[in-house]
Amino acid sequence: MTSSLLFGPLFEAPEIAEIFSDQGHLQGMLDFETALARAEHRVGIVPETALAPIAAAAEAGKFDLAALGAGAASAGNTAIPMVKALTALVAATDPEAARWVHWGATSQDAMDTGLVLQLQAALPLLEADLRRLAQALATLAETHIATPMVGRTWLQHAVPITFGLKAANWLASVLDARDRLAEAGRRALQLQFGGAAGTLASLGAQGLAVAEALAEELSLALPDSPWHSRRERLVDLGAALALLTGTLGKLARDLSLLMQTDVGEAFEPAGAGKGGSSTMPHKRNPVGAAVALSAASRMPGLVASLFAAQAQEHERGLGGWHAEWETLPLMLRLASGSLHHMTEAMSGLEVDPTRMAENLGRTNGLILAEAASMALGATLGREAAHRLVERASKRAVAEEMTLHAVLAADPDVSAALDAESLARALRPDHYLGMAEAFTRRVLARHQASTPD
Amino acid sequence: MTSSLLFGPLFEAPEIAEIFSDQGHLQGMLDFETALARAEHRVGIVPETALAPIAAAAEAGKFDLAALGAGAASAGNTAIPMVKALTALVAATDPEAARWVHWGATSQDAMDTGLVLQLQAALPLLEADLRRLAQALATLAETHIATPMVGRTWLQHAVPITFGLKAANWLASVLDARDRLAEAGRRALQLQFGGAAGTLASLGAQGLAVAEALAEELSLALPDSPWHSRRERLVDLGAALALLTGTLGKLARDLSLLMQTDVGEAFEPAGAGKGGSSTMPHKRNPVGAAVALSAASRMPGLVASLFAAQAQEHERGLGGWHAEWETLPLMLRLASGSLHHMTEAMSGLEVDPTRMAENLGRTNGLILAEAASMALGATLGREAAHRLVERASKRAVAEEMTLHAVLAADPDVSAALDAESLARALRPDHYLGMAEAFTRRVLARHQASTPD
Amino acid sequence: MTSSLLFGPLFEAPEIAEIFSDQGHLQGMLDFETALARAEHRVGIVPETALAPIAAAAEAGKFDLAALGAGAASAGNTAIPMVKALTALVAATDPEAARWVHWGATSQDAMDTGLVLQLQAALPLLEADLRRLAQALATLAETHIATPMVGRTWLQHAVPITFGLKAANWLASVLDARDRLAEAGRRALQLQFGGAAGTLASLGAQGLAVAEALAEELSLALPDSPWHSRRERLVDLGAALALLTGTLGKLARDLSLLMQTDVGEAFEPAGAGKGGSSTMPHKRNPVGAAVALSAASRMPGLVASLFAAQAQEHERGLGGWHAEWETLPLMLRLASGSLHHMTEAMSGLEVDPTRMAENLGRTNGLILAEAASMALGATLGREAAHRLVERASKRAVAEEMTLHAVLAADPDVSAALDAESLARALRPDHYLGMAEAFTRRVLARHQASTPD
Amino acid sequence: MTSSLLFGPLFEAPEIAEIFSDQGHLQGMLDFETALARAEHRVGIVPETALAPIAAAAEAGKFDLAALGAGAASAGNTAIPMVKALTALVAATDPEAARWVHWGATSQDAMDTGLVLQLQAALPLLEADLRRLAQALATLAETHIATPMVGRTWLQHAVPITFGLKAANWLASVLDARDRLAEAGRRALQLQFGGAAGTLASLGAQGLAVAEALAEELSLALPDSPWHSRRERLVDLGAALALLTGTLGKLARDLSLLMQTDVGEAFEPAGAGKGGSSTMPHKRNPVGAAVALSAASRMPGLVASLFAAQAQEHERGLGGWHAEWETLPLMLRLASGSLHHMTEAMSGLEVDPTRMAENLGRTNGLILAEAASMALGATLGREAAHRLVERASKRAVAEEMTLHAVLAADPDVSAALDAESLARALRPDHYLGMAEAFTRRVLARHQASTPD
Question: Which residues of chain B have a CB within 8 Å of the CB of C314?
Answer without folding.
Answer: 151-153, 155, 166, 254, 257
